[in-house]
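Record type: ASSEMBLY
Status: queued
Input:
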Amino acid sequence: MKKIAIDPITRLEGHGKILLYLDEKGGLKGAVLQVPELRGFEAFCRGRRGEEMPQITERICGVCPEAHHLASAKALDAAYGAEVPPAAWAQRELFYNCYIFSDHLLHLVFLGGPDLLLPADTPKSARNVLGVLQAYPELGREVVAVRARAQRVLEIVGGRAIHPVFALPGGVARAITPEEAEEIRSHTQAMVALAEKLVPFFHEEVLPDPGYQSLLASPSAHLPTHYLGLVDEGGAPHFCRGKVRAVSSQGAELFRLEGAAAMERIAERVEPWTYVKFPYLKGLGWAGFAAGPESGIYRVGPLARLNVAERMATPLAQEEYERFLDFFGEKPVHATFAYHWARLVEMVQAAEAAHALAQDKALTGTEIRGRLGKPGEGVGVVEAARGTLFHRYALDENGLVRDLDLIVATTHNAAGIGLSVKQMAEEVVGKGTLDEALLNQIEMAFRAYDPCLACATHFLPGEMPLVVEIYDVEGRLERRIAR
Amino acid sequence: MNGGSRGRLVVALGNPDRGDDGVGQAVVRALGPQPGVEVWEAVRGGLPLAEALVGYERALVVDACLDLPVGEVALVPLFVGELGPESGRWLHGLGLAQGLALLREAGLPVPRTWALVIGVPADLPFGQGLSPEVARAVPRAVAEVKKWLAN
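Status: finished
Output:
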C-alpha cells in the first residue's frame, strides 16, 4: 500500500547530520553537527517589502515561528527608528512569554521527558511520549491541557492560530479588548499553577534520580564554553528585550551591548567541508573546535541565559535559580545536562511574567503603533526557546529589503553541540558494533540543546531526525547510521 | 474520535513562498469564504497544528504531497490511531495524526480529520506561484473541498 505523508513538506531542508571523524587508531578525532541549509532564502527576500518579513521569516521554521516573527518586527522597529508604545510591548512580551512557556513545557516533559522521567533501564519501545504519559498520566494530561491554554493566548494576541500576524514595525496590529484580557488572565493563572506544581515534581522525581545525577556530574558532559544571551536592565534574563550579554567560561563579562553592536562582536568561521558557518566571539578568535578560555566558541539557550544572568525576573523563578546555583556551586554552570534544569527555571519565569503582564493595564492600551521614520538598517534580537536569534535587515529608500542576515540559535550552538556529541560519543565510537548505544549517547547530548532540526518534515513522523556518518582517517565514509 | 463543538474547519497547509508547496493556499483562496466554515492558512504542521484543531467537530487539511503523481488530487481520511511505541522520539517531528492521538490520549476533543492532498514535484525552490501542472489541479481540488463540505 502506498504511504502518503500528511504534513508540511518544506521549511528547513535536509537531514540533521552528525559527522564523526576517526583517527588512525579508530578513536574519535572530531564531531560536527551539520544543520539544514536555507538555500536561496536570502536571495528570495531581497527586493521584498520590509513589512512582509515578519510573515516570510516565520515560515522558515516549523518549530518557533513566534521567535522569527518578533525578531523580524524588532529589526524593522530599528530599521525605521520607531518607538514602540508600552501597550504594544505589553502584548509582545505577553505573547513571547507564553511561547517560551509552551515550548519549554513541551521539551521538559515530553521531549526531554524520556531522558529525565523514565528509569535508565526503560526499554527502547517505551522511551517516548507514550512512556511518559503512561508513567505520569495525570501530569501528562495536565501538561497537554495547560499547553493548549498557552496556545490559546498565542492565538488571541497573535491574531491567528499557529502563525502570528500581530507584530508590525513600530508596534502591533490591534488593541486587546477587556474581555480578551480577562480570558487571557484565566489561562496565565493556570500556567503559573502548573509551574508551581512542576518545581517540586522536578525535585522529587527527576533531580534525585541517580541517572540524572550522574549525567549532571559527568566529565563527558562538562563543556566550559563562553555564554551569550539577553538580559534586562537589572541583569535578569529577558526573552525579547534588553541587551546582549556575553560572559566568559570563567564568568567575567565580555560585553553587554545592544543587538547591532553585539552582532558586530560575532564572526563566523567557514570550514571547507561544510556549508554550516560556526559563529564565535570575534575578540577571542577562532581556536579550532575546542572549549575553554582561549577559544571563541560560546553557547546560547536556557543554560547560557542563566549563566549570563545576575538574577531572575520573578520570585518563584528566583528561588529555583538559587537552588540551581547552590546545587552546582559554581557559575557559569558548564554541565550540558543542566540545560534541562535551566529550562525549568525559565519556564517558571515565563509563566509568572505572562501572568503579571496579563494583569497589567497596559495590555488593553489603545496606543499600539509608534511613528515610523525613514527606512534604514536595523537589528532585532530575541531569545528563541533554544537560543539567541538575530535578524539584520538593510532597507532601501523605498522600504525594500536590500540585504539581510539571520543567525539562528542552532547555528550559534553548532560548535558546542559538535563538542558535546564528541564528548558523549568518545567512549563508544571505537568499539565498532555499538550502533544503538552510540545513537543513544548522541541523542541525549543533542536533545539537551533542543536544536531546531525536525522542521524538515522529510522525516517520517515519530522518527529521530538524525543521521550519523562516520568517516575514517582518509575521509572515506565508513558507516552511516540513521533512525 | 470524539470531536468538539466548534464546527467545521478547512486548513490550507504549506508555504506559499516555496512554489507548489503553496497549493493548499491557492485552493482555499479559490474556494473563497464558506458560510459556517472557518478557513485558515498554516505553515506549521504536527503537534502545533493538532493543538489548533482541538474543539472542532470536523477538519479538512489541504496540503501538497510528494507521494502522489504531480497534479493528482486525493481525499483521504486521517487515521488517528493509538500512539505507537515509536511515537515522539523526537517530538517536534511528531506527525499530525500522532499529535491528534496524543491530544486524544490526554482527554481533549479532537476532530474527525481528512486530508485533501495534491501531488507536487519534489523540487520546491524559494519563490511564489504554482507550476502549470499543479495550477491545473486547483479547480478539481476546490470541487473536492465543496463535496467534503456538503457531506
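Annotation: The helical segments of chain B are 23-31, 46-53, 96-105, 132-150.
Annotation: The two ends of chain B are 18 Å apart (CA to CA).
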